[in-house]
Amino acid sequence: MERVLGIGGYFIRASDPAALGAWYRDSLGLDADEHGLWRQEAGPTVFAPFEAGTDYFGSRTQQTMLNFRVRDLDAMLAQLRAQGADVAEETQDMDGVGRFGWVTDPEGNRIELWQSA
């Protein structure tokens, strides 16, 4: 059986694609080239379907949520707050999994940040 090798891309609608791309670059350090290619560090990726009625993604109209691995969750959240980003006050700790925090991008998409255990 053939299998997928990993996430090949994540595509997101935006009313201002250039501004949203700049936000991801300037706020999260996602340095993609002119074609959107970004070389990420090796590490785990979680694929997990959620119940249709979940509030975990924020708005019920948001069908997916992007999760980024981060080295230092507290430092990343502080950086985002200093830039005026919409950062959730709460964080979550999961034994053996790591710590989680959330930010909402300028287009209203909730993003999860994960510091692996």
UniProtKB/TrEMBL annotation:
PROSITE patterns named among the record's database cross-references: VOC (PS51819)
Record's protein name: VOC family protein
PANTHER family: GLYOXALASE, GLYOXALASE-RELATED
UniProt domain VOC: residue ranges: 6-116
Pfam families found in the cross-reference section: Glyoxalase_6
Organism the protein comes from: Amycolatopsis heterodermiae
Domain of life: Bacteria
Gene3D superfamilies: 2,3-Dihydroxybiphenyl 1,2-Dioxygenase, domain 1
